[in-house]
Write a structure and sequence with these properties.
Blueprint: E1 3-8, H1 15-28, E2 30-36, H2 47-57, E3 64-69, H3 73-79, E4 84-89, H4 92-108, E5 113-118, H5 128-136, H6 147-156
Parallel strand pairs: 1-2, 2-3, 4-5
The chain binds 4'-phosphopantetheine.
């Protein structure tokens, strides 16, 4: 079965990310959702909280694996013997950064390729940071994230 890594901060995972996982799995079969342990930004959810929340969402989905990683993404991919990285694109504004990352990764390990998938247009404006902002000020996030994530955000931002 073809395998791919879907890396990210996932702080927290949103319906846009889930849409990408679904699309990726129809192409690759086995998807390794890889949660970065030490992003530059200090995350709201700890690495173990993010992993657990994602595992719960995909609990009944064969072929979806969730784990944390640190260090260079390409080193992690190589260690796992996976040569495809999936990234989601929402809008043209994502492109510059993604292009830079993909080419840097290719420079580091030429045998690893990045495949870009476009999110459903209904998620094209969605981001984890906006979801957190809306949740913090008690806005309705029901159409942005699964219910488990909405509850986890409520716990982080008690009234
Ligand atoms: O969800 P994000 O924050 O956009 O994900 C970014 C991520 C985790 C894919 C990126 O920061 C990454 O790959 N970090 C690992 C360190 C690394 O390999 N850096 C060089 C890539 S240019």
């Amino acid at each position: 079965m073809k395998k791919a890594i879907y890396p990210g901060s996932f702080d927290p995972i949103t319906n846009g990310h889930i849409d990408i996982v679904n699309r990726a799995q129809s192409l690759f079969g086995e998807i390794h959702i890889s949660v970065i342990e030490n992003p530059h930004k200090s995350p709201l959810f700890s690495i173990s909280e993010r992993i657990t929340l994602i595992q719960q969402i995909f609990a009944d989905r064969p072929g979806i694996y969730v784990e944390g990683f640190h260090g260079l993404l390409v080193d992690y991919a190589k260690k796992k013997h996976i040569s495809t990285i999936i990234r989601g694109l929402r809008a043209v504004s994502d492109f510059d950064y993604e292009f830079q990352m993909a080419l840097t990764n290719r420079h580091l390990h030429p045998e690893i390729d990045t495949v870009f998938l476009m999110t459903d247009e209904k998620y094209s404006y969605l981001s984890s940071s906006l979801v957190k902002q809306v949740a913090k000020f008690k806005g309705n996030i029901d159409s942005f994230v699964p219910i488990s994530i909405a509850r986890a955000l409520q716990e982080k931002y008690p009234s």
